[in-house]
Amino acid sequence: MDYTQASQYLDRCLIFGIKPSLTRIQKMVELMDDVHKCCRFIHVVGTNGKTSVTKMAAAILWGQGVSCGYHVSPHIHSYRERFWYNGRNITAQEFLNLFDLVYPVVQQVNKLDLGGPVTQFEIIAAMGFVMAREMGLEAMVLEAGMGGRWDATNVAHAEAVGLTGVSLEHTQFLGNTIEEIANEKVQVIKIGAHAATLSQDKRVLEIMKQKIKQQQGKLYVYGKEFEVANADSRQFLGWKVDIRGIMDNYHAVSLPLLGQYQPKNLSLALALAELFRGRAAEGKRLEKSMANIRVGGRFELIRKDPMVVADASHNPEGMQWLAKNLEDYYPKGRKIIIFAVLKDKDFRTMIEQVVGLAHILIITSTGTERSLDIDLLEKEVLAARVMPGPEQIYKMDSIKNSLNYALKICKSSDMICITGSITNLEHIVS
Protein backbone atom coordinates (compact mmCIF):
# COMPACT_ATOMS: atom_id res chain seq x y z
CA MET A 1 0.00 0.00 0.00
CA ASP A 2 0.95 3.63 -0.42
CA TYR A 3 0.11 6.40 2.08
CA THR A 4 -3.29 7.16 0.56
CA GLN A 5 -4.29 3.49 0.53
CA ALA A 6 -3.18 3.04 4.14
CA SER A 7 -5.24 6.07 5.17
CA GLN A 8 -8.26 4.75 3.29
CA TYR A 9 -7.87 1.38 5.01
CA LEU A 10 -7.96 3.12 8.40
CA ASP A 11 -11.02 5.10 7.29
CA ARG A 12 -12.81 1.86 6.46
CA CYS A 13 -11.94 0.43 9.87
CA LEU A 14 -14.23 3.02 11.46
CA ILE A 15 -17.15 0.70 10.70
CA PHE A 16 -15.86 -1.66 13.41
CA GLY A 17 -16.80 1.02 15.93
CA ILE A 18 -15.85 1.15 19.60
CA LYS A 19 -15.32 -2.17 21.35
CA PRO A 20 -14.44 -1.73 25.05
CA SER A 21 -11.77 -4.40 25.47
CA LEU A 22 -8.00 -4.72 25.70
CA THR A 23 -7.96 -8.26 24.29
CA ARG A 24 -7.06 -7.36 20.71
CA ILE A 25 -4.45 -4.68 21.49
CA GLN A 26 -2.83 -6.91 24.11
CA LYS A 27 -2.46 -9.66 21.52
CA MET A 28 -1.07 -7.19 18.98
CA VAL A 29 1.66 -5.83 21.25
CA GLU A 30 2.50 -9.37 22.35
CA LEU A 31 3.02 -10.40 18.72
CA MET A 32 5.28 -7.37 18.29
CA ASP A 33 7.62 -8.42 21.13
CA ASP A 34 5.89 -6.36 23.81
CA VAL A 35 6.38 -3.11 21.93
CA HIS A 36 4.36 -1.29 24.62
CA LYS A 37 7.32 -1.73 26.98
CA CYS A 38 9.88 -0.07 24.70
CA CYS A 39 10.05 3.25 26.57
CA ARG A 40 8.64 5.25 29.48
CA PHE A 41 5.13 6.74 29.34
CA ILE A 42 2.95 9.61 30.48
CA HIS A 43 -0.80 9.05 30.10
CA VAL A 44 -3.35 11.87 29.73
CA VAL A 45 -7.08 11.27 30.32
CA GLY A 46 -10.11 13.50 30.81
CA THR A 47 -13.19 14.82 29.03
CA ASN A 48 -11.68 17.99 27.56
CA GLY A 49 -8.17 19.39 27.13
CA LYS A 50 -6.33 16.10 26.63
CA THR A 51 -4.77 16.99 23.28
CA SER A 52 -3.50 20.35 24.52
CA VAL A 53 -1.94 18.82 27.65
CA THR A 54 -0.43 15.94 25.67
CA LYS A 55 1.19 18.22 23.12
CA MET A 56 2.51 20.61 25.75
CA ALA A 57 3.92 17.84 27.94
CA ALA A 58 5.74 16.25 25.00
CA ALA A 59 7.11 19.62 23.87
CA ILE A 60 8.35 20.36 27.40
CA LEU A 61 10.14 17.01 27.67
CA TRP A 62 11.71 17.42 24.22
CA GLY A 63 12.83 20.91 25.18
CA GLN A 64 14.45 19.56 28.34
CA GLY A 65 16.52 17.11 26.32
CA VAL A 66 14.31 13.99 26.49
CA SER A 67 13.83 12.12 23.21
CA CYS A 68 10.05 12.15 23.19
CA GLY A 69 6.94 11.57 21.10
CA TYR A 70 3.18 11.73 21.41
CA HIS A 71 0.08 10.01 20.12
CA VAL A 72 -3.15 12.05 20.05
CA SER A 73 -6.63 11.72 18.56
CA PRO A 74 -8.57 12.56 16.53
CA HIS A 75 -6.93 14.40 13.65
CA ILE A 76 -8.28 17.25 11.56
CA HIS A 77 -6.77 16.61 8.11
CA SER A 78 -4.35 13.72 8.17
CA TYR A 79 -3.52 10.69 10.28
CA ARG A 80 0.03 12.04 10.43
CA GLU A 81 -1.20 14.70 12.87
CA ARG A 82 -1.67 11.98 15.49
CA PHE A 83 2.04 11.12 15.64
CA TRP A 84 4.85 13.47 16.65
CA TYR A 85 8.39 12.95 17.87
CA ASN A 86 11.39 15.13 18.65
CA GLY A 87 9.86 18.35 17.43
CA ARG A 88 7.83 17.34 14.37
CA ASN A 89 4.98 15.26 13.03
CA ILE A 90 5.91 12.10 11.20
CA THR A 91 6.25 12.19 7.42
CA ALA A 92 3.97 10.30 5.03
CA GLN A 93 6.75 7.75 4.46
CA GLU A 94 7.30 7.27 8.19
CA PHE A 95 3.57 6.79 8.66
CA LEU A 96 3.55 4.17 5.91
CA ASN A 97 6.54 2.40 7.45
CA LEU A 98 4.72 2.17 10.79
CA PHE A 99 1.55 0.96 9.11
CA ASP A 100 3.48 -1.71 7.19
CA LEU A 101 4.91 -3.04 10.45
CA VAL A 102 1.50 -3.19 12.14
CA TYR A 103 -0.73 -4.35 9.27
CA PRO A 104 0.46 -8.01 9.20
CA VAL A 105 -0.23 -8.22 12.94
CA VAL A 106 -3.73 -6.84 12.38
CA GLN A 107 -4.35 -9.63 9.88
CA GLN A 108 -3.06 -12.23 12.35
CA VAL A 109 -5.25 -10.96 15.18
CA ASN A 110 -8.33 -10.71 12.97
CA LYS A 111 -7.98 -14.43 12.20
CA LEU A 112 -8.18 -15.18 15.93
CA ASP A 113 -11.64 -13.57 16.22
CA LEU A 114 -10.99 -11.91 19.56
CA GLY A 115 -14.38 -10.25 19.81
CA GLY A 116 -14.40 -8.94 16.26
CA PRO A 117 -11.93 -7.20 13.91
CA VAL A 118 -9.24 -4.87 15.19
CA THR A 119 -10.62 -1.32 15.38
CA GLN A 120 -9.18 1.80 13.82
CA PHE A 121 -8.08 3.20 17.17
CA GLU A 122 -6.39 -0.06 18.16
CA ILE A 123 -4.35 0.01 14.94
CA ILE A 124 -3.34 3.62 15.50
CA ALA A 125 -2.44 3.00 19.14
CA ALA A 126 -0.24 0.10 18.06
CA MET A 127 1.43 2.35 15.49
CA GLY A 128 2.21 4.82 18.28
CA PHE A 129 4.01 2.16 20.28
CA VAL A 130 5.91 1.04 17.18
CA MET A 131 6.92 4.63 16.49
CA ALA A 132 8.45 4.87 19.96
CA ARG A 133 10.47 1.72 19.31
CA GLU A 134 11.53 2.49 15.75
CA MET A 135 12.58 6.06 16.57
CA GLY A 136 14.39 4.99 19.72
CA LEU A 137 12.40 7.32 21.96
CA GLU A 138 12.97 7.62 25.69
CA ALA A 139 9.39 8.72 26.38
CA MET A 140 5.91 8.83 24.89
CA VAL A 141 2.97 10.94 25.99
CA LEU A 142 -0.26 9.07 25.26
CA GLU A 143 -3.69 10.65 24.95
CA ALA A 144 -6.49 8.24 25.79
CA GLY A 145 -9.10 8.11 23.07
CA MET A 146 -12.09 7.51 25.35
CA GLY A 147 -12.33 6.73 29.03
CA GLY A 148 -9.31 4.83 30.24
CA ARG A 149 -9.95 1.29 31.45
CA TRP A 150 -10.63 -0.19 28.01
CA ASP A 151 -8.77 2.35 25.92
CA ALA A 152 -6.12 0.78 23.67
CA THR A 153 -3.45 3.11 25.10
CA ASN A 154 -3.99 1.49 28.51
CA VAL A 155 -1.74 -1.47 27.76
CA ALA A 156 1.12 0.90 28.57
CA HIS A 157 2.38 1.29 32.14
CA ALA A 158 2.59 5.05 32.60
CA GLU A 159 4.78 6.53 35.31
CA ALA A 160 2.80 9.78 35.41
CA VAL A 161 -0.91 10.25 34.73
CA GLY A 162 -2.73 13.52 34.07
CA LEU A 163 -6.48 13.90 34.41
CA THR A 164 -7.83 17.17 33.02
CA GLY A 165 -11.39 16.90 34.31
CA VAL A 166 -14.54 14.80 34.11
CA SER A 167 -17.94 15.67 32.67
CA LEU A 168 -20.75 13.60 31.19
CA GLU A 169 -19.81 12.22 27.76
CA HIS A 170 -19.81 8.79 26.06
CA THR A 171 -22.27 7.71 28.74
CA GLN A 172 -23.29 4.63 26.75
CA PHE A 173 -19.77 3.29 27.27
CA LEU A 174 -18.47 4.98 30.42
CA GLY A 175 -21.51 5.30 32.69
CA ASN A 176 -24.24 7.79 33.47
CA THR A 177 -22.68 9.58 36.43
CA ILE A 178 -19.52 11.59 37.09
CA GLU A 179 -18.44 8.92 39.58
CA GLU A 180 -18.79 6.10 37.05
CA ILE A 181 -16.92 8.00 34.34
CA ALA A 182 -14.15 9.05 36.73
CA ASN A 183 -13.74 5.44 37.83
CA GLU A 184 -13.21 4.40 34.20
CA LYS A 185 -10.60 7.10 33.63
CA VAL A 186 -8.51 6.43 36.76
CA GLN A 187 -7.95 2.81 35.69
CA VAL A 188 -4.93 4.03 33.70
CA ILE A 189 -3.15 4.64 37.04
CA LYS A 190 -0.80 1.69 37.44
CA ILE A 191 1.19 0.49 40.43
CA GLY A 192 3.71 3.10 41.57
CA ALA A 193 2.43 5.83 39.24
CA HIS A 194 1.91 9.41 40.32
CA ALA A 195 -1.06 11.44 39.10
CA ALA A 196 -1.87 15.13 38.71
CA THR A 197 -5.27 16.64 38.02
CA LEU A 198 -6.97 19.94 37.25
CA SER A 199 -10.28 18.65 38.61
CA GLN A 200 -11.79 20.41 41.60
CA ASP A 201 -14.75 18.03 41.74
CA LYS A 202 -14.83 16.35 45.17
CA ARG A 203 -16.37 13.22 43.66
CA VAL A 204 -13.54 12.88 41.14
CA LEU A 205 -10.83 13.65 43.70
CA GLU A 206 -12.14 11.04 46.12
CA ILE A 207 -12.06 8.36 43.41
CA MET A 208 -8.53 9.42 42.42
CA LYS A 209 -7.36 9.32 46.05
CA GLN A 210 -8.69 5.79 46.47
CA LYS A 211 -7.02 4.59 43.27
CA ILE A 212 -3.69 6.28 44.07
CA LYS A 213 -3.66 4.77 47.55
CA GLN A 214 -4.35 1.34 46.06
CA GLN A 215 -1.52 1.79 43.54
CA GLN A 216 0.93 3.20 46.09
CA GLY A 217 1.47 6.45 44.23
CA LYS A 218 0.90 10.11 45.05
CA LEU A 219 -1.79 12.55 43.91
CA TYR A 220 -1.07 16.18 43.00
CA VAL A 221 -4.09 18.48 42.83
CA TYR A 222 -4.38 21.83 41.06
CA GLY A 223 -4.63 24.64 43.59
CA LYS A 224 -2.70 22.70 46.21
CA GLU A 225 0.50 21.20 44.83
CA PHE A 226 0.61 23.25 41.61
CA GLU A 227 -1.33 26.13 40.04
CA VAL A 228 -1.35 29.11 37.71
CA ALA A 229 -0.15 31.95 39.95
CA ASN A 230 -0.89 34.60 37.35
CA ALA A 231 -2.05 34.69 33.73
CA ASP A 232 -1.87 37.90 31.73
CA SER A 233 -3.84 37.76 28.52
CA ARG A 234 -2.14 39.27 25.49
CA GLN A 235 -5.44 38.88 23.64
CA PHE A 236 -4.88 37.18 20.30
CA LEU A 237 -1.15 36.72 20.97
CA GLY A 238 -1.77 34.28 23.83
CA TRP A 239 -0.61 34.52 27.44
CA LYS A 240 2.20 35.41 29.82
CA VAL A 241 1.91 32.85 32.60
CA ASP A 242 3.42 32.45 36.07
CA ILE A 243 3.16 28.89 37.34
CA ARG A 244 3.79 27.48 40.78
CA GLY A 245 5.00 24.03 39.85
CA ILE A 246 5.47 20.95 41.97
CA MET A 247 9.23 21.39 42.05
CA ASP A 248 9.84 25.02 41.12
CA ASN A 249 8.22 28.32 40.18
CA TYR A 250 8.16 29.49 36.56
CA HIS A 251 7.78 33.15 35.66
CA ALA A 252 6.48 34.95 32.57
CA VAL A 253 6.25 31.86 30.35
CA SER A 254 4.96 32.87 26.91
CA LEU A 255 2.11 30.66 25.72
CA PRO A 256 0.95 31.45 22.16
CA LEU A 257 -2.42 29.70 22.52
CA LEU A 258 -5.84 31.28 22.90
CA GLY A 259 -8.49 30.16 25.33
CA GLN A 260 -9.10 30.67 29.03
CA TYR A 261 -8.30 27.00 29.71
CA GLN A 262 -4.80 26.93 28.20
CA PRO A 263 -2.81 28.38 31.15
CA LYS A 264 -4.24 25.64 33.39
CA ASN A 265 -3.50 23.03 30.74
CA LEU A 266 0.10 24.25 30.68
CA SER A 267 0.33 23.93 34.47
CA LEU A 268 -0.80 20.30 34.25
CA ALA A 269 1.59 19.52 31.39
CA LEU A 270 4.44 21.05 33.36
CA ALA A 271 3.49 19.09 36.48
CA LEU A 272 3.55 15.85 34.47
CA ALA A 273 6.96 16.69 33.03
CA GLU A 274 8.28 17.40 36.53
CA LEU A 275 6.89 14.15 37.91
CA PHE A 276 8.25 12.18 34.97
CA ARG A 277 11.78 13.60 35.22
CA GLY A 278 11.84 13.90 39.00
CA ARG A 279 13.13 17.46 38.83
CA ALA A 280 12.20 20.98 37.78
CA ALA A 281 12.23 22.19 34.20
CA GLU A 282 14.94 24.59 33.10
CA GLY A 283 13.23 27.95 32.54
CA LYS A 284 14.85 29.10 29.29
CA ARG A 285 14.33 25.71 27.70
CA LEU A 286 10.69 25.73 28.82
CA GLU A 287 10.19 29.13 27.21
CA LYS A 288 11.74 27.91 23.97
CA SER A 289 9.68 24.72 23.86
CA MET A 290 6.42 26.69 24.21
CA ALA A 291 7.32 29.28 21.57
CA ASN A 292 6.03 27.26 18.61
CA ILE A 293 3.34 25.16 20.30
CA ARG A 294 0.16 24.81 18.26
CA VAL A 295 -3.04 22.94 19.01
CA GLY A 296 -5.27 23.14 15.95
CA GLY A 297 -8.93 23.98 16.35
CA ARG A 298 -8.83 24.96 20.03
CA PHE A 299 -10.29 28.47 19.82
CA GLU A 300 -7.78 29.01 17.03
CA LEU A 301 -7.66 32.29 15.13
CA ILE A 302 -7.36 31.26 11.48
CA ARG A 303 -8.11 34.61 9.85
CA LYS A 304 -7.86 38.19 11.08
CA ASP A 305 -9.87 40.27 8.64
CA PRO A 306 -12.62 39.41 9.15
CA MET A 307 -11.89 37.49 12.33
CA VAL A 308 -12.51 33.74 11.94
CA VAL A 309 -12.07 31.32 14.85
CA ALA A 310 -12.03 27.51 14.56
CA ASP A 311 -13.24 25.82 17.73
CA ALA A 312 -13.47 22.09 18.39
CA SER A 313 -15.91 22.27 21.32
CA HIS A 314 -18.03 19.13 21.05
CA ASN A 315 -19.82 18.77 24.40
CA PRO A 316 -21.64 21.02 26.89
CA GLU A 317 -18.52 21.70 28.97
CA GLY A 318 -16.65 22.72 25.84
CA MET A 319 -19.48 25.04 24.83
CA GLN A 320 -19.33 26.69 28.27
CA TRP A 321 -15.65 27.41 27.65
CA LEU A 322 -16.50 28.74 24.20
CA ALA A 323 -18.98 31.17 25.76
CA LYS A 324 -16.29 32.42 28.16
CA ASN A 325 -13.77 32.78 25.36
CA LEU A 326 -16.16 34.71 23.13
CA GLU A 327 -16.97 37.06 25.99
CA ASP A 328 -13.30 37.59 26.86
CA TYR A 329 -11.90 37.93 23.35
CA TYR A 330 -14.83 39.56 21.57
CA PRO A 331 -17.26 41.07 24.08
CA LYS A 332 -18.88 43.76 21.90
CA GLY A 333 -18.86 42.65 18.28
CA ARG A 334 -21.51 40.68 16.43
CA LYS A 335 -20.94 36.93 16.42
CA ILE A 336 -21.74 34.74 13.42
CA ILE A 337 -21.62 31.13 14.57
CA ILE A 338 -21.47 28.18 12.19
CA PHE A 339 -22.69 25.12 14.04
CA ALA A 340 -22.84 21.41 13.22
CA VAL A 341 -22.90 18.60 15.76
CA LEU A 342 -22.68 14.82 15.93
CA LYS A 343 -25.86 12.89 16.66
CA ASP A 344 -24.24 10.82 19.44
CA LYS A 345 -23.40 13.94 21.49
CA ASP A 346 -25.60 15.80 23.99
CA PHE A 347 -26.74 17.97 21.11
CA ARG A 348 -29.86 19.41 22.77
CA THR A 349 -27.84 20.96 25.59
CA MET A 350 -25.26 22.23 23.10
CA ILE A 351 -27.99 23.75 20.92
CA GLU A 352 -29.48 25.56 23.92
CA GLN A 353 -26.02 26.97 24.61
CA VAL A 354 -25.19 28.05 21.06
CA VAL A 355 -28.48 29.88 20.41
CA GLY A 356 -27.62 32.11 23.34
CA LEU A 357 -24.22 32.99 21.90
CA ALA A 358 -24.98 33.81 18.25
CA HIS A 359 -26.22 37.03 16.70
CA ILE A 360 -26.41 35.11 13.42
CA LEU A 361 -26.53 31.31 13.51
CA ILE A 362 -25.70 29.16 10.48
CA ILE A 363 -26.58 25.49 10.98
CA THR A 364 -25.09 22.82 8.78
CA SER A 365 -23.67 19.29 8.62
CA THR A 366 -20.30 17.96 9.74
CA GLY A 367 -20.16 16.03 6.46
CA THR A 368 -19.85 12.68 8.22
CA GLU A 369 -22.21 9.77 8.83
CA ARG A 370 -22.33 10.70 12.52
CA SER A 371 -23.61 14.20 11.79
CA LEU A 372 -26.97 15.22 13.20
CA ASP A 373 -29.41 15.57 10.28
CA ILE A 374 -29.70 19.23 9.28
CA ASP A 375 -33.51 19.18 9.28
CA LEU A 376 -33.55 17.73 12.80
CA LEU A 377 -30.92 20.27 13.83
CA GLU A 378 -33.10 23.07 12.48
CA LYS A 379 -36.11 21.74 14.40
CA GLU A 380 -34.13 21.56 17.64
CA VAL A 381 -32.68 25.05 17.14
CA LEU A 382 -36.12 26.59 16.59
CA ALA A 383 -37.46 24.78 19.66
CA ALA A 384 -34.55 26.04 21.77
CA ARG A 385 -34.62 29.59 20.45
CA VAL A 386 -35.09 32.13 23.21
CA MET A 387 -35.26 35.89 23.13
CA PRO A 388 -32.95 37.57 22.77
CA GLY A 389 -31.64 34.90 20.48
CA PRO A 390 -30.08 34.88 17.03
CA GLU A 391 -31.29 37.74 14.85
CA GLN A 392 -31.18 35.38 11.87
CA ILE A 393 -30.86 31.62 11.39
CA TYR A 394 -29.65 30.13 8.11
CA LYS A 395 -29.42 26.50 7.00
CA MET A 396 -26.59 25.47 4.68
CA ASP A 397 -25.52 22.12 3.23
CA SER A 398 -21.83 22.13 4.24
CA ILE A 399 -19.24 23.78 6.47
CA LYS A 400 -17.42 25.16 3.43
CA ASN A 401 -20.54 26.80 1.99
CA SER A 402 -21.49 28.05 5.44
CA LEU A 403 -18.15 29.79 5.82
CA ASN A 404 -18.33 31.28 2.34
CA TYR A 405 -21.79 32.65 3.11
CA ALA A 406 -20.67 33.97 6.51
CA LEU A 407 -17.79 35.79 4.84
CA LYS A 408 -20.22 37.25 2.31
CA ILE A 409 -22.65 38.68 4.88
CA CYS A 410 -20.24 39.65 7.65
CA LYS A 411 -19.09 43.15 8.48
CA SER A 412 -15.47 43.97 9.22
CA SER A 413 -16.31 44.22 12.93
CA ASP A 414 -17.94 40.76 13.09
CA MET A 415 -16.42 37.53 14.36
CA ILE A 416 -17.11 34.21 12.65
CA CYS A 417 -16.78 31.07 14.75
CA ILE A 418 -17.04 27.48 13.50
CA THR A 419 -17.88 25.09 16.34
CA GLY A 420 -19.73 21.95 17.50
CA SER A 421 -17.28 19.21 16.42
CA ILE A 422 -13.65 18.77 15.47
CA THR A 423 -14.90 17.14 12.25
CA ASN A 424 -16.21 20.57 11.20
CA LEU A 425 -12.67 21.82 10.76
CA GLU A 426 -11.31 19.38 8.15
CA HIS A 427 -11.75 21.76 5.21
CA ILE A 428 -11.24 24.96 7.23
CA VAL A 429 -8.07 24.74 9.36
CA SER A 430 -4.82 24.60 7.41
Can you walk me through this structure?
By secondary structure, this protein is an alpha/beta fold. Helix content is 38%, strand content 18%. The chain folds into two domains: 3-291, Mur-like, catalytic domain (UDP-N-acetylmuramoyl-L-alanine:D-glutamate ligase); 300-425, Alpha-Beta Complex (Protein-Tyrosine Phosphatase, Chain A), CATH 3.90.190.20. The protein has helices at 3-12, 23-31, 50-63, 92-112, 120-134, 171-174, 178-185, 202-214, 262-277, 283-291, 316-329, 347-355, 374-384, 399-409, and strands at 40-45, 68-71, 83-85, 88-89, 139-143, 160-163, 194-197, 219-221, 227-233, 239-244, 249-255, 300-304, 307-310, 335-339, 360-363, 392-395, 415-419. A hairpin with a 2-residue loop joins β12 and β13 (307-310). α2 packs parallel to α5 (120-134). The radius of gyration is 21 Å and the shape is globular.
Topology (SSEs and partners):
Elements: H1 3-12, H2 23-31, E1 40-45, H3 50-63, E2 68-71, E3 83-85, E4 88-89, H4 92-112, H5 120-134, E5 139-143, E6 160-163, H6 171-174, H7 178-185, E7 194-197, H8 202-214, E8 219-221, E9 227-233, E10 239-244, E11 249-255, H9 262-277, H10 283-291, E12 300-304, E13 307-310, H11 316-329, E14 335-339, H12 347-355, E15 360-363, H13 374-384, E16 392-395, H14 399-409, E17 415-419
Parallel strand pairs: 1-5, 1-6, 2-5, 6-7, 7-8, 13-17, 14-15, 14-17, 15-16
Antiparallel strand pairs: 2-3, 3-4, 9-10, 10-11, 12-13
Helix pairs in contact: 2-4, 2-5, 3-9, 3-10, 4-5, 7-8, 11-12, 12-13
